[in-house]
Every structure is written in C-alpha cells, then in structure tokens.
Amino acid sequence: LYNRKNKLYFYFKSCSCFLGSRTSGDLKYHLIQEKKTWFEARDTCRENYTDLVSITSQQELWNITNIKGRFTVWIGLYQNPWQWSNGDKSSFQYWNTNEPNNNADDVCVGMYLKNLSDKGDKHLSEVGKWSDFGYNNQQYFLCYKEKLTLVKEKKTWREAFIYCRTNHTDLVSITGPEIQKQVAEVVNASAKNRVWIGLHRERFSGYWFWMNEELLDYSNWGSGIQGDPLTDHCGFMDKGRNFTWGNTCCQALFSFVC
After folding, report:
1. What is the SS3 assignment for 28?
2. Where is the C-type lectin domain (predicted)?
3. Which top CATH class is 8-145?
4. pLDDT tens-place string over residues 155-188
5. In CA terms, which of 48, 165, 184, 225 is 20 to 30 Å from 218?
C-alpha cells in the first residue's frame, strides 16, 4: 500500500450511491452517498476499498475538501484519545469551534464538506472542520483506496513487514472478497507461488489478526492447510492453490504485497 503523494486529479462517476473520487498520487478518495453509522461505514470501506479516510496533513485535508457536497461525512477518526481506524495516531487535527465537545456518546468524527464555489455563505469557514458525533448517527462517508504493490525480493515475514512500513504503508490486509480479488490479480500478474500477506498469529492466544489490528472476519484458508501451531505464525497467499491462504514459519523467504 503506497504512501501519500501530492499529484492529484478529480473526476465524477454516476451511481446511485457514489459521487466521485479524488486521487492524491497513489491514494484515491471515494465519497459514498449512502447514509450509514460510523462502524457500518468503516466496514463498507474495508470491504470495497481500504478504509475510512485518514487525514494526516493540512495539504491532504484541502485535497479532500475540493470534493463538492453540502453535508457532513464520516472520516476514520474515533474514540478519545483520538486515533484513525487504520490504527495510526492522530497527530493532525482540524476541529470546528467548541469541538470536540466530549459528550459521552460522541466517539466518532465527521467532517463538513461544501461546494467552495458558493461565495458568501456563512458556513464557508466550516469547510473541512471536524465535529464529534455518536457512532449510531447515519451519515455519508469518505473511503480511501491505496494501490497495491508486489515486492519480488524475497524476505522473511518480519523483514517484509518492516520494508512495507518503511517504504509504503503496511503488509496488505485482506478484509473482504473485493480486496482478496485485487491482491490475487497483483499476485497472478507478477509473482511465483507464495507471497507474504499481513496475517499474523498471536502466540499465546492463538488468534489470527491483520497488521492493521483487525481480527479475521473474512478468511480464505486453503483446504488441508494446517501448519505447526508452535512455529507457523505467519500467513501467505498461495498462487498455486487458487490464491488461498496458508501459514508457515515466519523465517521462510517469500515475495510480499504492500
């Protein structure tokens, strides 16, 4: 998954629930005009794109607010202390006046979008500002999608993890069938057999989780794939077994997908 860059363009698509998207380098934003709660919005973004949008700088904020609309949209910021739904800390924040108000149920954050061509509107100063809301409020939402990249150099799982964190964003998390399909297409085009993905088993509890801290709600394990529960704690995708998943020793050397 690629880091954020600065080149951008904008276009509209016509669909009952989709307004348009904005691309910043290898990062594309998708505005979904279907009202959902914050958690429903997050799950929809993860199933079809990457996640709810994370806003890490003033420049990125203004890139997003050029999307035209007259409504508040969910972004990926939640809880207090505030963090992004992808697990990152929130070092950049852009609160509206008297926000956050820290009401007990206001644990999720929305951002005000508005058509910037409307001059003289009293709400113009609120464009891009954030407010906290109850998670059961229903609002439109903003997803982002990052470009997948296959690194052909073979590394251990930990080396692959460090490489992706340093040069891109993370080892890929496959949280739904749409992302599974996208990763399979990347692997099919360039890779040989097994590639590391961001799947890891916690040694003591035995639970599998993604490196974005999400547990496995969706899985695509290959039949007959067991692995040694004492040593095989890292997950891979196997091109030779119809892109199903397996687990093996983390010291094995594979290509990987960031």
Report:
1. strand
2. 29-144, 143-258
3. alpha beta
4. 999 999 999 988 887 899 998 887 899 899 999 9
5. 165
